[in-house]
Amino acid sequence: MTPEEFVKESGLLLGYDELRRVHDAMRAAMLRGLSHGDGCLRMIPAYVPPVSSPPPGEVIAIDAGGTNVRAAVVRFREGEEPIVEGMVRDGLPGADGEPVDGETFFARLAALVASLERPGLPLGFVFSYPTRILPDRDGILLRWTKEVRARDVEGARVGTGLSRALEEHFGVRTPSVTVLNDTVAALAAASTKLSGTGGAIGLIVGTGCNMAYFERTAAITKLSAEEAGPPEQAINMESGNFDGLPMTVFDHGLDESSEDPGRQRFEKQVAGRYLGELTRRVLRGAVGRGAVPPSVGRELAEPWRLETAHVAALLSEPARFEGPLAHVAPSEQAAVRLLARAVVTRAARLVAAGLSSVIDHLGLAAAPVAIVAEGTMYWKMPGFRQKVEETLDELTPPLGGSPRFVMLRIEDANMLGAGVAALS
Ligand code: GLC
Q1: Which of 182, 205, 236 to mutate to test the pocket of ligand 1 (most atoms within 8 A of CB)?
Q2: Which atom of ligand 1 is the closest one to the Cα of 182?
């Protein structure tokens, strides 16, 4: 069997009709999540309204992503572009396979904040996991995703955890903590640049994958009057958990070997935490079907050995074969690239299908929906964002000559958005 035949047989190719089905199922799940809060999309209200111009001031932004933590001071001055200063970084505790306890988790984050030596500033805490946000802007972690393991944090208030650790270990008192998702932070950063657009989406495709958008609070019918918050606010969809999509044997295998089988099915097909492992499974499957020779699979027996960075390297121009693929013979490299490209293309097409459901949910506004995207998969995986945009054109073609979406690029969107949210 040729590699092309293998790709066809594997179910990795998603045509227009399959993507439309994903689109329809996601729209239905969005409505369900807004009205009932159950089902695969949590649709979590963030209590963060669109802000066209944040008030002047300074905040500390801390961004606990899926792999790293970053902290910096963000400064807003009237009539000037905001500034992100003194960025410091650390690995995310619990993300490297070594479990930590909650105490250690927050102490490490607090150490990073304290190292900025700016006590007394409000905190914008970008915490990128399914977290129920409370009207006071603290948040309760519902469950870890992206394979992170930190004990005793699920069910706890994470803003309080961080401010308590700052006080206990560093004697620093924090005036306020605003907890927000990374998608919401990206959206908040975009909200200062939205004039002339018909709504906005914050998209992350990094270690994980998720979307947020601004919703009318009246449409979030699961909220009681006391819980309602501002008339328009960001919704963290937690779309990584969407499950209305076709699954191949490789997806089932990966899901079963993950920390949270049955969950985050969309994310496991598209995000950086999983794409290397998924590609490894596809390559092994191709060896099994004689589509590539056994030598290709020699160093791929061990689960999670192939990283998404290795996939990015082999899809680069010129291609670099690294890690467990370092010994692939030149004569086999084209086939390996074709298989890896199929996995990455499927991911990009699914991300576009997700975006198209939100664009359609926002309605047929005369102005295009602004999409602000963050994340290493989106920006660093060769060909990825081009494929997302091309597929999105296919799924939401221009209407009466006007485009349905525009892509916004905002440098440091998460840090700026944390600042915007914490000040408003
Ligand atoms: C995972 C998290 C989600 C986050 C996304 C991107 O899906 O559950 O909260 O936004 O990763 O980082």
Answers
A1: 182
A2: 10
Alpha carbons 292 and 283: distance in angstroms, whole number: 8
> Whose alpha carbon is nearest atom 11 of ligand 1?
208
CA of 310 to the centre of ligand 1 (A): 22
Task: Please name the residue whose Cα sits nearest to atom 8 of ligand 1.
Answer: 129
User: Would the pTM count as exceeding 0.85?
Assistant: yes
> What distance in Å separates the CA atoms of residue 414 and residue 376, rounded to the nearest whole number?
13
Q: Whose CA is nearest to atom 3 of ligand 1?
A: 129
Q: What residues contact residue 285 under an 8 Å CB cut-off, 6+ apart? A: 6, 10, 249, 250
Neighbour tally for 323: CB within 10 Å: 17
Q: What DSSP line would sit under 69-80, residue for residue?
A: EEEEEEEE-TTS
Tokens at residue 59, please? 């905040």
Q: What is the CA radius of gyration of the chain?
A: 21
Tokens 């073609």, located at residue: 397
The number of the ligand 1 atom at minimal distance from the alpha carbon of 145 is 8
Which residues have CB under 6 Å of ligand 1? 66, 128-130, 145-146, 181-183, 204, 206, 208-210, 238, 240, 267
Q: Residue 318, preceding bond cis, omega within 30 degrees? A: yes
Q: Which residue in 423, 349, 424, 420 sits closest to 390, CA to CA?
A: 349
Tens-binned pLDDT, residue by residue, of the chain (424 aa): 999 999 999 999 999 999 999 999 999 999 999 999 889 999 999 999 998 888 999 999 999 988 899 999 999 999 888 999 999 999 999 998 889 999 999 999 999 999 999 999 999 999 999 999 998 999 999 999 998 999 999 999 999 999 999 999 999 999 999 999 999 999 999 988 877 778 899 999 999 999 999 999 999 999 998 888 899 999 999 999 999 999 999 999 999 999 999 999 999 999 999 999 999 999 999 999 999 999 999 999 999 999 999 999 999 999 999 999 999 999 999 999 999 999 999 999 999 999 999 999 998 777 899 999 999 999 999 999 999 999 999 999 998 888 999 999 899 999 999 999 999 8
